[in-house]
């Protein structure tokens, strides 16, 4: 997910707030996928 959204270590170094927001978004998406695929099936 990080690779497809272009999240890099360079982004982390240049704009930590942006990087954190994007990583939190990925975490939320991953949690949704797990809940949908693993828990509710």
Low-confidence stretches: none
Helicity, as a percent range: over 70%
Q: Give the overall silhouette.
A: elongated
Describe the main β-sheet briefly.
none
Q: How many β strands by DSSP? A: 0
Would you tell me the structural class of the helices and strands?
A: mainly alpha
Rg is 13 Å
Essential attributes:
41 residues; mainly alpha; 2 helices
Explain what this protein looks like in three dimensions:
The chain has 41 residues and is mainly alpha-helical. Helix content is 73%, strand content 0%. The two termini are 23 Å apart. It contains two helices and no strands. The mean pLDDT is 93. It has helices at 9-14, 16-39.
In short:
With 41 residues, the chain is an all-alpha fold. The protein is 73% helix and 0% strand. The radius of gyration is 13 Å and the shape is elongated.
List the helices and strands and how they pair.
Blueprint: H1 9-14, H2 16-39
